[in-house]
Automatic annotation (TrEMBL):
Reaction it catalyzes: 5-O-(1-carboxyvinyl)-3-phosphoshikimate = chorismate + phosphate
Textual note on the cofactor: Reduced FMN (FMNH(2)).
Enzyme class, UniProt record, top EC level: lyase
Pfam families registered for this protein in UniProt: Chorismate_synt (PF01264)
UniProt xrefs under InterPro entries: Chorismate_synth, Chorismate_synth_AroC_sf, Chorismate_synthase_CS
E.C. code: 4.2.3.5
Family: Belongs to the chorismate synthase family.
Annotated protein name in UniProt: Chorismate synthase
Listed pathway(s): Metabolic intermediate biosynthesis; chorismate biosynthesis; chorismate from D-erythrose 4-phosphate and phosphoenolpyruvate: step 7/7
Length: 390
């Protein structure tokens, strides 16, 4: 499967075209809207989220509630567009109009794509860069991921993202009874954190950063249950599923690192405390006695839960000015902004969930027959039985 996204943060709409979904899969706009609303929530978001109420329109590839096998097109309107029709207009400017178009950006913000993106595409008005590098684009990545999540859920695979750290405050109590319990409890937390006490401290840290005109980052974790063993590849570097998940997480705006299972902690432990012992029972088939490797060996799923973390840097758009250089005058200035989120880690956990779901659905549709959803479902069931008795 593949998808492209198009659209600017303050342009008319965001669009994604998804290709490679099996025909005959049930999908409804309400499935996707639920995830779009989850992404918009989260303590620490700025005023833009009060303007937008993201809703998807399915404009291709679906008929009477089922995929057709043709590309699926999804559209989400930017409500803020009405305030930007002149500045972000599609039509060429009339003569003399150029100076009347305000909000030209000649002052790159440290930590953003502004300066490098301007250099790459020759944009002296770096609005042309920031409009696209904005995390607004994650709206349609979540829409695409939501479709992938639907495919997975119909195959008995559950994916959930949550927050384990914000601004140096770590969640300590990460126990949950079932994935449903994890979903319910994180859904009720304004910071999507399982540990209620840590969640309160995280909110205080966000308030503190906001009051200081600063921003804070954190760590999100995605957990997947129900993936069968042997999906991915040890044969081809570009089909190693853990590597593809790592790339997908790194592709989320402001993400700077990825860990599976014990992650970087593995550097500090001997092999006997890292690798997971293999066991078998008639009922369960093969399983690991522990899951320190986070569900992957040799670029393939082990059948154990997938546990992957990603670190998000603090959002670089700061009220607290950092020094930069105006590209027109080459003079130093203190960068400042009008509007920003002080922390978007809770939202980013929904984005991480979505991109992981996408990679899993892609790997499954690549490995198993996938023109028809019913055949995919059957192939997967056979594979589950086969790996159990292997
Ligand atoms: C973003 C800046 C803010 C965020 C935006 C991402 O938008 P604006 O520039 O309009 O104030 O609110 O996030 C979203 C719009 C969203 O939907 O998540 C940025 O620069 O990345």
């Amino acid at each position: 499967m593949r998808y492209l996204t198009s659209g600017e943060s303050h342009g008319p709409q965001l669009t994604t075209i998804i290709e490679g979904l099996p025909a005959g899969m049930a999908i409804a706009a309400s499935d996707i809207n639920n995830d779009l609303a989850r992404r918009q929530k989260g303590y620490g978001r700025g005023r833009r989220m009060q303007i937008e109420t993201d809703r998807v329109q399915i404009v291709g590839g679906v008929r009477h509630g089922y995929t057709l096998g043709s590309p699926v097109s999804l559209v989400v309107e930017n409500k803020d567009w009405t305030h930007w029709t002149k500045i972000m207009g599609i039509e060429p400017l009339e003569e003399g109009e150029e100076d009347s178009v305000k909000r030209k950006v000649s002052r790159p913000r440290p930590g953003h794509a502004d300066l490098n993106g301007g250099m790459k595409y020759g944009h002296r008005d770096m609005r042309n860069v920031l409009e696209r590098s904005s995390a607004r684009e994650t709206t349609v990545r979540v829409a695409a991921g939501s479709v992938a999540k639907k495919l997975l859920s119909l195959l008995g695979i559950k994916v959930v993202g949550h927050v384990v750290e914000i601004g140096g405050i770590k969640a300590e109590n990460l126990k949950y009874e079932s994935i449903e319990d994890l979903v319910k409890r994180t859904e009720n937390s304004p910071v999507r954190c399982l540990d209620e006490q840590a969640g309160v401290k995280m909110m205080e840290a966000i308030d503190d950063a906001k009051n200081k005109g600063d921003s804070i980052g954190g760590v999100v974790e995605v957990i997947v249950e129900g993936m069968p063993a042997g999906v991915g590849s040890y044969v081809h570097y570009d089909r190693k599923l853990d590597a593809n998940i790592a790339r997908a997480i790194m592709s989320i705006n402001a993400f700077k690192g990825v860990e599976f299972g014990l992650g970087f902690e593995m550097a500090r432990k001997p092999g006997s405390e890292v690798h997971d012992e293999i066991a078998w029972t008639k009922e369960e088939g093969y399983y690991r006695r522990t899951n320190r490797l986070g569900g992957f060996e040799g670029g393939m799923t082990t059948g154990m839960p997938i546990v992957v973390k990603g670190v998000m840097k603090p959002i670089p758009t700061l009220y607290k000015p950092l020094k930069s250089v105006d590209i027109e005058t080459k003079e130093e200035f203190q960068a400042s902004i009008e509007r920003s989120d002080s922390c978007a880690v809770p939202s980013a956990s929904v984005v991480a969930e979505s991109v992981v779901a996408w990679e899993l659905a892609s790997a499954l549709t690549e490995q198993f027959s996938s023109d028809r959803f019913d055949i995919l479902e059957r192939s997967l069931e056979e594979h589950r039985q086969y790996t159990k008795e292997f």
